[in-house]
Design goal:
Length: about 325
Amino acid sequence: MCLSDRKDIQFMEKYTQKKLKNQLLQTLIGKHVSDKSFERIKECNTFLFMVADKTMEKTKLHRSNNCDNRFCPICAWKKSRKNALKISVLMQYLREEENKDFVFLTLTAPNVKAEELDDEIKHYNKSFQRLMQRKEVKSAVKGYVRKLEVTYNKERDDYHPHFHVILAVNKSYFTDKNYYISRDRWLELWQKSTKNNLITQVDVRKVKATDNKKEVSEIAKYSAKDSDYLEDEKVFDTFYKSLSGKRLIVYSGLFKDASKLYENKELEKYKELDPTQYIYQIFYHWGRQDYIQTEKKIMTDEMQKEVNNQIFDEDDFENE
């Protein structure tokens, strides 16, 4: 087996792992969705249209059939990559055009049992709004992107909802005592907003201008890991009830304004062109346990023009 063949196999393994988890999802989600939705989940990514360069070392997905269910491991993985690119672009735009810096804030509270999770998430949302409306926070924060994440602790059989937040602030925020909010003050404000003095931790740090990959990954990644919510039927039912119908990622202030520009394709200059020249088109169909290559051929000139010299539509973001 040559190097290029191994590269191709490694690339397909990512999709295979997610599709296998999609099959596990099918055993758990049936009672929660309509027959039509279930069929879409069942058929999700049974067809993949890939393109590859002449060495087969660079391969990317060009088209597939997606169900777009937020609990689908494949669709959630793809969505997280697109969110990562979007948030990176928004931050670059706000740095360059609005002269902003960023603070990464993680807000937590003690874990809760399954029957408390839905109410706890609602409480989190209200508490966060109270926090953002406080005078000193309102003065310092010019916008934010906030992501809800829920993790499951199998040993204790409880759940940990928490917020990852990127705050846009003026560059003077870190040196102006009239605006700067210390870590201890953030904790105090969060305790007051939640009305819960049992909270002992918040994480606050400045986002480095040269490398925001870690913070973007935290915001963009899944609201729940498929390894958590696919644990068993009881755990899945808890996640489904608690996360269905809720806004998992929220843009506000300058981030909301920039998000509208992004969706209107007015921030394309902040994206990079894909330098790879793709010449092969490869079709895969899902078998019982893996993807089967059904066709591989050189693209027509017209197809190569469509595929090549395009802007990246997802970030180089990976998550298990």
